[in-house]
Amino acid sequence: MYFELEQDIFDGLRGICEEVRENSEKMTVNAMLMKMMDMQDLPMHCPYHHFIVPAAMLTQVAIAEDRDSDTFNEWMRSAEERAKTVPAGFCGECGTCGAAVGMGIFVSIYTGATPKSRKNWQWANEVTGKCLQKIASYPGPRCCKRTAFLAVNEGVPYINDRCGTTLVAGESLNCSYHDRNAECLEGECPFYESENPEKNDGHAIIVGHEMMPRKEPGRTCDCMNRPISLDSKKGVLSWLKDEGDEVKAGETVCEGEVDKRVIEFEAPCDGILVKQCIKEGQVFTAGTVLGYVND
Q: Fewest C-beta atoms under 10 Å: which of 81, 113, 115, 153?
């Protein structure tokens, strides 16, 4: 599939990343993805997403680690250069989604991996494989938004574990792009913002499949740097906000205890906590909708 890339769009996407870094705007990786996806004139489906994924990751890790401008600019140059080698339609025609490749690009750039590397060569390929498996757990047709979100949700916990980063995926999100996608899976997509009035309470706070525990002062054991799999474990919920409270995007609204570790759940947007679906002290697991924030 041929797609003519426009340098102006790459320049615009890099400009967004540069502004975010200059302002030290810490946010979840998915929020960073959407900030780039919202750029005017960016097509719904396009190989620019192969750059958006590593660029979002590199921007947020640069802020978290206070990287200098020269390092950041070199990272972004490499990410753009490598992303341009992943053709449009790669997912369907070659069986390798560019969003998953984008996560591999991030690991390679961040760790300095080369074809002759050892550990980080393995990490770059392994995270790509994990993301591909997650992406393939849903049917086609392709959706560059869905696959980017899936790659980030699957890849961030792995990367934090292997590379010691402290990125936050921000899995509780509702996709607002479906009205531009004639091929949207709708209810089959985990990020679909339902138009069913019974479910239109706002933006859902959803338990991810893997989540990093909150860092606790004084606790230095390895378990604090490993993601918790909620597919096989249950947690007990505690609310920090009440129904009717105003909340800010990224603000912790509730937390859960799992195996003596604490995980935090953030508000997906600015607004009002309109509904608590799981009450204080009740049990949750992966996929549970904890509540809704209405903007």
A: 115
